[in-house]
User: What shape does this take?
Amino acid sequence: MKDYFDVKFSELLQKSEFELPNSYEMRFQNTLEKISAKKAKRYFLLFHSKVAAVIALCVVSLSLSIGAGAAINLYIQRMNSLNEEEMLTYNSEVQNTDKEADSFSRQLSKLERDKMLEFREEYETEGRFPTKEILKVQKKSEVVHGELCFCVENSTFYLPKQELTDDELLQIIDFMEKRDYSVRKKNSVSELPSSENEKVSEDEAVEFAKKILADVYNLDITYAENGSGFSIQTPYNMNNSDIPCIGISPYKEMTNWTDKMIVTYEATITDEAALSTDLKNTFSVPATKNTNGDLIKDDELIPSGGGQDDADVKMKAPTLEITKKSNKTQYNVGENGTYELIVKQTKENLTAKNVVVTDTFVQQEGVKYDTSSLKVLLNKEDITQECKINVEGNQFKIETGKDLTDEDKLVIDYQVNFEKEGQYTNTAVSKADNTNEDQANNVVEVKEITPELSIKKSSDKHEYAVGNTGTYTLTVKEKKSDATAKNVVVKDYFVTGDGINIIPDSIAVILNKEDITKDCKIIANANEFSIETGRNMTSQDELQVTYQVNFTKTGTYQNTAITKGDNAEEVEADNTVDVKKQDVTITKDADQKRYKVGDTVKYKVKVGLKKENTISKNVVIRDQIPDGMKLDENSIKVEGITDYTINVDGNKMEVKIPTLRYGEEVTVTYEAKVLKGALGKTLTNKADVNGEGINGGEAKVTVEVPNTTKATPGSSTPSSTSSNSGTNSSMPKTGDTTNATPYAVAVILAGIAAAIIYKKKKK
Assistant: This one.
């Protein structure tokens, strides 16, 4: 029923060499009796006639508590079960050991330590005992590895690698209790009664110990406020019977001193700064007065009453080492920097507990962490999700919750974006619960490098005919390898606005082969457009813009393409094309204006040359059936010529004519089936013709597929044009001036016919 202080102090008792005068025993007992019974719990008076013994006993005794009832009886019964031989063995082992304290073959885990405290109390107050006793061996060579045992030779508990079981923990406690009980019994220990269930704090125990020291030994002990030292004022004189006459021998060779005083104490390392270096401890005894009342001189020829000695304490603490590097030492504004932190524990067989890593930029602005890029790897295993990560402004903190041994490696990767020009310094710091911090710095330069854009412009042809559609392509690049153009904008405009129509739906924006049209802000009208891409461009990027223009008049058309960035100057490129009258006639029509799903659309295209005595070679007639229809390849027929070739690719049709002469008229007919995808849509398709030495032409036709299962009858074949879409028809509306007489006559005739048939049947 003792506290852990007993273990430590019982070992220290054997070390003291200062003899306690017999007259002090009575004085010590009287002092104890003066202390209130409420305060004193149990006093184990181990009279070894040693100062250290008395000090230890005072502190230990006042830290004890006692339970009540049957549990106490169980505890007493267990201690009383020890026979004389067992107690003699335990006591002999304690008295003969040269170790100051028990040790463990490995550190106890937090869980084991917590259970040890809990089970110790239950052992003493509830009678919780192990099922068997701990294995005890005399020599280290007899240790059974992997099994719990105690070695007497080095006072060491050898623990298995795995977590101790509850019963193994109780075996250790049981051994300590029996050993301490035996030492008390074999050294004439007496116990003072105490009231049940009272406890005395450690602070109270220390105060009692101080009072005993003052009363019994007349010692005045003071402590430095910061805990860094102490001072002891004693009433004792120290004699030396072997001081020789001057000249007999050097004083430094004197070894046989009569009196000796030994002071033992413990110190706890509390300052983290101490973990990184060895500690120097100085013990000094200042000069005192001799028996004549004179201060002993500090003279080389006369033994001084003062002196000091130093001792270096080697620290056994883990050490963290952090290194930091960036992928470059110089960046451009707008560029991302990639950083890597590596943290290691460098002391062999030691562990850094609960490692924390922080990273801080000196600059408050101009740099921004990319939180999505932050990744934490422990021995190549991604533990990012297991960490507590906080990113705020110009710094982040990562609480890993992990321990690092000398075999572990912690790697942290992240990116930052540099928004302003300047020099950027950041510091990474690693820390653990039981280490000092280590830090690593990194400095990079960020410069504002002006990017340079380029733009090229091309058209699919340099010459068009009225009614043709031209396709333009713009290509934009950033020329400098170390620069970034921000928020690139592209514009295009025609100098002559009349005679051209930009088709807005045809504008497509492609960045590095990715269609970003929907992500862009596009404003377009008949003769110009602007595109705000919202994207940055480096030398590795390529931006391409394509669009179509319909030419409605003859003439020369010049247009200019422009590109710029927030930090890039404007550059431009020009293009010029000619639009001439068509040298061909081309018409296209369908058999109806409106269809239903499942209907067949019958198309007809007619082509001929306008100029007398002209001949064109390699003439090609093309048509693309729109989505929502399916071309019937077998329905294609060509009339008016005999030499031709038909090519079909899905809904694309092509008729190649080796030679076409003035006066020849080529008629191409074909059919397409209306599919479900056309329901509720207006479908337009275009046929075009081109050949050598002529300005080609094109013709369009538009049909409707109303959102109904029935087709609305068409009144006439859709009209064709050489440059414009066919005209759509519509059903007569209420109030229309359309002649309704034919419809009324038809209704009347139908009624008369029905009446005649009915009469005949009746007869």
